[in-house]
Amino acid sequence: MPSRTKKFRGLRTHGRGKKAGRGAGIIGGHGQAGLGKTKKIHMLKYDRDHYGRHGFKRPQCTVTANSTINVGELEESIERFVQMGAATKEGDGYAVDLTMVGIDKLLGTGSIGIKVDVTVDAASAQAIEKVEAAGGSIVGASGEEEEEE
Question: pTM for the whole thing?
Fold first, then answer.
């Protein structure tokens, strides 16, 4: 029995008509092709919001990501902060101004074994707890002010 291809040799369309044998001709194109024409009913039923803009984009002046550091990283980086002038050694501990370095928030991951007095805009409750357990304090953190009152 001959194959269909062999049977149709010499015939231009192999029995498929003019467009069916080309790429995605019989289905009306690839992907999103024809949503405004042949596939319009499908688009209106299943993807009504296909055209146009949706939602909104916040202005860049209001979108700011906090620059953060963990308690464990603070202990590792303390000597670097001293060299930069953002920290000073005071007796057996350190006084660190993280706002001077551009850090907005102190987070509580890791552990700290040195006494550190930190000046920072915000700190997590866990960070405050760990720093105070090591004998230090956090100044200017939004979380600490509420707890002291």
Answer: 0.56
